[in-house]
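hey can u check if this looks right to u? its 276 residues, i copy pasted from the old doc so theres a chance i mangled smth
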Amino acid sequence: MIKKHLFGCSAVLVFMIIARAFIFNNPVSLSDILVVNKVEPQVEQTPNLDNYINTFSFANEEVPIGDAKIEYRMKKALQSHRYANLQTDMLHRKAEKWFPLIEPILKVYGIPEDFKYIPLVESGLRAGTSVKGASGFWQFMPGTARSFGLKVNDAVDERQNMRKSTIAACKYIKSMYAELRSWTLVAAAYNVGDVNLRRQINKQNEDNYFRLKLNRETASYVYKLISMKEIIEKPQKYGYGKKPKLVAATVFRPNGKFIDPISNYDGAQSLKALRD
């Protein structure tokens, strides 16, 4: 019995001597132990424009590649919309709230979904009036608003109504496309006015938005729309958090009655009726 205990003690002693020798020959500091569980901070990666310039598009009209000036404008617009520069995700929260209302209306009128980014660029999806008199989510001037069915007077201003102003915007956009036949030109015309844009097209004999020489704001407008599309659809690539979950555009009241926010919140009209 004593021999068995002596044998066990000897084995433990030998193990301790070997372990001690290993530790002294291979010292492990506290910092070495802690680094195993160290979480490296995520560093925002600046997108490499050269790798995916040919993937940028607006309403399925691609940004031309191989032109240094075009690539510079695209890169500059993307840079200005990164989280590092904006320092807020307010635009994502606004998109999460309003896109489910805007998207179905665009679809009814046959307008490409990318036009939902216009009110983000124009107003940040906020109702309000500019110093020039443009007002509402889509920033309509009073005359243009009235031309496309909105009431604008001392008593009421339907430019502040998202549903009605989006319907008016669709009618306006569709009317411009009938003449310009290019969605990027329509977007530019939304910024500068269709009459002014047609004047430049005729003067320069050029009908490609990316090749036209326009004022600084209009020349950068479509690039801003594409950048807005990028940060909303791929937020983490540009330093934002997770992509917001866009809720459905239909809800139910507690009593079970169906609400259709597209058709004046009462479920009485169908989407097709919006065309009338």
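Confidence is low (pLDDT under 50) at residues 2-6, 21-47, 247-276.
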